[in-house]
Write a structure and sequence with these properties.
There is one protein chain. The chain has helices at about 15-20, 45-50, 70-90, 105-130, 145-150, 335-350, 370-380, 390-395, 415-425, 435-445, and strands spanning about 1-5, 25-30, 55-60, 95-100, 135-140, 155-160, 175-180, 195-200, 220-225, 225-230, 240-245, 250-260, 260-270, 270-280, 280-285, 385-390, 410, 430-435, 450-455, 465-470, 480, 485, 490, 515-520. It has about 525 residues and is an alpha+beta fold. The protein folds into three domains: about 1-200, Alpha-Beta Barrel (TIM Barrel); about 215-290, SH3 Domains (SH3 type barrels), CATH 2.30.30; about 335-520. The strands form six sheets. Strands 1-2-3-4-5-6-7-8 form an eight-stranded mixed barrel. Strands 14-13-12-9-15 form a five-stranded antiparallel β-sheet, with no helix packed on it. Strand 4 (about 95-100), helix 4 and strand 5 form a beta-alpha-beta unit. The relative contact order is 0.09.
Length: about 525
């Protein structure tokens, strides 16, 4: 018999102690709606458990105690959420995800509500991977629930809940995992855990790539295609790309995540992205090409008529120039973080994006690019309102002097052009690419600047850009139960100008956009 625990507590700090205490595995949670901060397992915890020699098993639970928590619709939602969580963790194919039925249902209730729920899970998983689900389905619940679902072929594995008074729990013997009540303290997690014992293979795993060491930590493959979608799960169906990996991008392969797919790690502009790619678009890196080319040539910033007083909030004149209004606030980049935060908040308030004529939409045009450039300019960083033409860049790169002449040596920058500029030239001007909304908000809350920029899919249509600003006592970012930022606090011009707000949750993932980037300037 294999002995382990189940718990809603983060076990990363306790992992070595648990292994020393003779525990072979830890069962943790996936969840979409939990409000308990530590309940949902995150990648860093999974990595820590595996590195301590512990196996991991997972159960998906969003309450799962009322009839409303089951049925076909919820089954489809939870199946999709479980796949997304497994992909984030790096759960290998062939392991299991258990689904909780944390209630003593009658037989009629199991057949009426729970059976359709598990049928939906199987259907979603089969459709996602051409009839061959990546993961085995398990059920947590009473003896009756476990028996009925296993007999129906809807659950391969069963986990018997600790409540021995539930229907058939005292007599059900075909369990793969059995839970028991605990009242002892253990390894810094208190008594908030349950004793579990398992028979043989019950679908436990260790995340892909947890054991890479030495040279294995370096990229060994690169993108062979013109560009390659990095996806949040190993399938082209039903999930939008995390980002696009350009041709020849080096990637570190963490392990096979599905037939024909690998979980990889890639670095873009200093930010590390982890996801899944199709193997057929990768090729080995020849030894002679793994070189640092030093990045783009040093190019000076371009301004059109900097310091122009008529480039002010209540005027539409001078929109190609940085805002030059007398009395404009600025950020002192050398000030302590607390002062810089106050200065950035003052800039947001002073620009009055919701009422200033400079940023209001008119004649079918919007001015997110003008607003973002002004905010960054007042904050003491550089985001171009105009940028050098290709011919001007060639002359500058050769060491020649070039004067900014509108329409000849410099051109206005729309949001889609800013998207590519940040990728190509951002690091030259102090921008650092990041991988998550959490990173953006952390930078802004430390007195730095954050931007989200997306490139429009349709040729000729402009993309969109927002600035990420420091949180205030009233205006806050949206966080999940684990405290991670899901929607950073943004400020924008656009079809609707918002001092605090954006085009909507995850606007940058809208199908109108072919890609997006997140950058910070410290």
């Amino acid at each position: 018999m294999i002995v382990g625990i189940s718990t809603s507590r983060n076990c990363a700090p306790s992992a070595p102690c648990l292994a020393s205490a003779g525990k072979a595995f830890v069962i943790r949670y996936y969840s979409r709606t939990t409000k308990i901060p530590e309940k949902r397992m995150l990648p860093a915890e999974a990595q820590a458990l595996a590195q301590a020699g512990l196996n991991i098993a997972v159960v998906y639970q969003d309450r799962a105690r009322e009839t409303d928590d089951f049925g076909t619709v919820r089954g489809r939602q939870d199946a999709d959420s479980a796949l997304a969580a497994a992909a984030q963790i790096g759960q290998p194919s062939g392991s299991a995800i258990y689904f909780a039925v944390d209630v003593n249902f009658t037989k009629d209730q199991v057949l009426t509500y729970v059976r359709p729920y598990f049928e939906a899970i199987r259907s979603v998983w089969s459709a996602a991977h051409n009839g061959a689900p990546l993961y085995r389905i398990g059920v947590y619940g009473s003896g009756l629930t476990c028996r009925l679902l296993k007999q129906a072929g809807l659950a391969e594995l069963t986990w018997l809940a600790e409540a021995t008074g539930w229907r058939e729990s005292a007599t059900y013997a075909e369990w793969d995992v059995r839970q028991a009540i605990n009242k002892k303290n253990l390894c810094g997690i208190g008594s908030d855990w349950e004793h579990c014992e398992a028979k043989g293979d019950f679908g436990a795993f260790r995340p892909l790539g947890f054991d890479l060491v030495g040279e294995e930590l370096s990229p060994t493959m690169r993108v062979a295609a013109t560009s390659l979608n990095l996806r949040d799960r190993p399938s082209a169906e039903g999930n939008r790309p995390i980002t696009l990996l350009p041709n020849l991008t080096p990637v570190k392969v963490l392990g096979p995540s599905a037939p024909g797919w690998s979980r990889v790690e890639a670095r873009l502009g200093g930010a590390v992205f982890t996801g899944h790619v199709a193997d057929r678009f990768l090729e080995p890196i020849p030894a002679q090409v793994w070189l640092d080319d030093g990045g783009p040539p040093t190019i000076p910033p371009a301004y059109w008529q900097e310091g122009r007083p008529e480039a002010r909030r209540n005027s539409v004149a001078g929109q190609a120039s940085p805002i030059g209004e007398v009395g404009r606030p600025t950020r002192d980049i050398h000030a302590p973080a607390g002062e810089r935060i106050q200065q950035l908040t003052r800039i947001v308030e002073w620009l009055e994006v919701e009422t200033s004529a400079r940023y209001l939409p008119r004649d079918g045009k919007t001015y997110c690019n003008v607003y973002a450039a002004d905010y960054v300019y007042l904050a003491g960083a550089y985001l171009p309102r105009v940028w050098w033409t290709g011919a001007a860049i060639a002359r500058l790169a050769s060491g020649r002097t070039v004067e900014p002449i509108y329409g000849k040596t410099v051109m206005e920058m729309r949001a889609d052009a800013l998207y590519q500029w940040l990728i190509d030239f951002g690091s030259t001007f102090g921008w650092r690419r990041v991988a998550s909304p959490d990173d953006l908000q952390m930078a802004a809350n430390g007195g730095g600047i954050g931007v989200i920029c997306a490139d429009r899919r349709a040729e000729g249509l402009s993309g969109h850009i927002t600035v990420v600003v420091p949180e205030t006592d009233v205006q806050r970012a949206v966080r999940n139960a684990s405290g991670q930022v899901q929607q950073p606090l943004q400020s924008q011009a656009g079809s609707k100008n918002k001092r605090y707000g954006s085009a909507g949750p995850n606007w940058w993932q809208d199908s109108r956009y072919i890609g997006h980037v997140m950058f910070v300037h410290d």
